[in-house]
Amino acid sequence: MNFKVLRLLVLFLGTTFVSTTGFAQDDDNKAIITGNFQLDGQYYVEDTAISAVVPDQNMALSGFGNILYRKGKFTAGMRFETYLPAPVGYPAGASWSGTGIGYRFAQYSDELFDITVGNFYEQFGNGQIMRTWEDRGLGVDYMLDGIRVKARPFKWAEMTAIYGKQRYNFNNGTQFVSEDLGQGIVRGINGDFDVTSLLDSVVNIPGQLSIGGSFVSKFQDNFSSRYAFPENVGAGSARAKYNIGGFQFSGEYTWIGENPSSMNSQIVNIPDSLDPSVGLWATGEGINLNATYSVRGFGLSLTASSLANMSFQSQREAGAFDSWINYLPATSVLQTYLLSQLYPYATQPNGEVAYRADLFYNFKRNTALGGKYGMKLEVSYTHINSPEITEVNDLNTSRNGVEMSLFKPGDELYFADFNARLTRKFNKKFKGSLFYQHIVYNNDVILGAYDYQNIPTKGTVYADLFVFEGNIKFNKKNNVRFEAQALFTDQHLQDWVAGVIEYTVSPHWFFTVIDQWNYGNADGDKFHFPSASLGYIKNSSRISVTYGRQRAGVFCVGGVCRVVPASNGLTVSITSSF
Amino acid sequence: MKPISILFALFLIATTQSFAQDPVPSVVVKDLTGKSVNTSEFSNDGKPMIINFWATWCSPCKRELNTIAEVYPDWQDETGVKLIAISIDDARSQARVLPYVNGSSWDYEVYVDTNQDLKRAMGVNNVPHTFLVDGNGKIVWQHNNYSPGDEDELYEQILSLIE
């Protein structure tokens, strides 16, 4: 830690201490310090068989600590971050290294105003136009550094204005090093209005309606001597949500101005080897629609979403994980079973047409199917297609290379997922569930399935997954949970089985043993992926030690889910809140 | 290594210090109809409240809330406790929150913390994370993780609040 950082820390803690002791009179206006932290240490062992990467430094240590200071309407906070170095495959985008303060802010908020200076996270609508967010498990941090003002002049209105510079990486303890890539400036305004309460005194409309809209713009200098890249790129969005009875309808539409970037240059093969970031000079469009009907014991949700040239990053040459202004999550359901994680869908911001239906049903107690305790059914279907792309091929003058329309599907299936789960409690000691999933995974597009030499599999993978999960409660504190999983496919690495056994002693201990076995791999070695974890929890603190081979993906152990990179070796993880 | 020692110092503070009786921070979350609600308005008429962070993609969270759902009517009768479930689902899975909550026949008060503002303000690392708030609105106990049986420990904490 350098001197400047240390001085800041001392100053910060000093101020905090003085104000805590000095002015702690009124109970409601008492100064409060809270925080949380996480520390992950890894020791890598060589495992060439599965191409596990061992970094030059065979140990990795990363962590962060947040400290928040609150007093009445005032809040200040900072995050100390350390990557010495970051674990393999972390973060998701540009590198994070060194030790320093990666986040600091001061905020004043009352009923009317909320003003933040420094770093902040903000989301407009569903994020399709702008969402600056963090996921420390993934190694994602798109926060802004600048000013945010929120105003709530009426009960029915909230308005937000932001102006800031986006975090790109964390270079040797300093954030925002991006001289080569430009400023990454993001500006925006947003308004959300509760129409029902606005009109409350005038007319009484049935149901509840809210609407909103945003405008966001980014600025980056044009460094090219060859192309007149737009330095300012604007985007707008409009949204509405309506509730009536058991129904809910919501939708958001987003439009982005001409935004040539290295991301959208991949829509068509641009014949311009001199400047790969030339991109398409086309506008972007995105829409997300949802209808839900739900009553006690029954829920149904239908989602339709379509994107065309929707990548919106604060830097023209940003990589696939860097400097995202907007948030385009996958329409598919996030599955957490180990073998399901072999084929996770990734949104195609350059264009896709996606549909999803979700059904939730609770069979009542004391019925034939429900039994004594009732039974749960969950069914979900996701279908994602390519967009129809008409190539204009005017790559010299307008550079408006393609035409796409929302919800106009092309011929290529990107992804499909049908899954169903039944969960039932049989008696006081035993709960069980059955899960089935059928996956269609176009790896030529998604590029998420690799072989053991780290080469992406060609073509489409068709897989069927079966899971039986059970929970045996021996007594008040001792419990065993197990998962038996089997995945069948003729493509990629072919058939797998996996087993999980988790023994917990409430409220402090957990012990988990996992093995994933690629037994059906006819083209290569039939690898095992064994691992064991031991953990201790006390109140809001948790420490765990894991040894073994791990594949990348969402990893759930001891009751907590987070994303971990592929590795072989020893991992120690500590999290705590105070 | 200095950073490690600082983090370990924080860990020691965290594990040895008794809970600071802090009030719930004031942050705007959305109810399931999309209406903004300030968390400072959370109240239960002087009776205890449970604030539980969960997500539709988090299996242990759902196991915890479904287990508590079975005994929730008894808990309410005996202690008057109210459970507030804070979903940290983002735009990816938010459309599943309302049908899941109703489909599971939960009687909890449910809010969505779509960009994790409340999660950050309350220092939550991972879900599930449960806070117990006393009748004066002060956080008196918290627990990370869920293992079957943890709900009994939570209930004992609630009972100790109402004596």
Compose a concise summary of this entry.
The complex is a heterodimer of chains A (578) and B (163). Chain A is mostly beta strands. Chain A contains three helices and 32 strands.
Helix content of chain A: under 10%
Distance between the termini of chain B: 47 Å
Distance between the termini of chain A: 23 Å
Main beta sheet strand tally, sense and closure of chain A: 24 strands, antiparallel, barrel
Write the CATH fold name of chain B: Glutaredoxin
State the helix count of chain A: 3
Principal-axis shape of chain A equals globular
Counting helices, strands and paired strands, the structural category of chain A is mainly beta
Tally of separate domains of chain B: 1
Low-confidence segments of chain B, ≥5 residues, pLDDT <50? none
Number of H- or I-type helical stretches of chain B: 5
Mean pLDDT of chain A: 87
Overall geometric form of chain B: globular
Overall pLDDT confidence of chain B: 89
The biggest sheet of chain B, with number of strands, parallel, antiparallel or mixed sense and barrel status, is: 7 strands, mixed
The sequence of SSEs of chain B as H and E is HEEEHEHEHEEH
CATH level 1 class label of chain B: Alpha Beta
* Strand segment tally of chain B: 7
Secondary-structure blueprint:
The complex is a heterodimer of chains A (578) and B (163).
Chain A: H1 3-23, E1 31-44, E2 59-71, E3 74-83, E4 98-109, E5 113-120, E6 123-124, E7 130-131, E8 134-135, E9 140-141, E10 144-154, E11 157-166, E12 170-171, E13 174-175, E14 185-194, H2 195-198, E15 208-219, E16 232-244, E17 247-256, E18 284-295, E19 298-308, E20 351-363, E21 375-391, E22 402-425, E23 430-442, H3 443-446, E24 460-473, E25 478-489, E26 496-505, E27 509-517, E28 528-538, E29 541-550, E30 553-557, E31 560-564, E32 567-577
Chain B: H1 2-16, E1 28-31, E2 36-38, E3 49-54, H2 59-79, E4 82-87, H3 97-103, E5 109-112, H4 117-121, E6 129-133, E7 139-144, H5 150-162
Parallel strand pairs in B: 3-4, 4-5
Antiparallel strand pairs in B: 1-2, 1-5, 3-6, 6-7
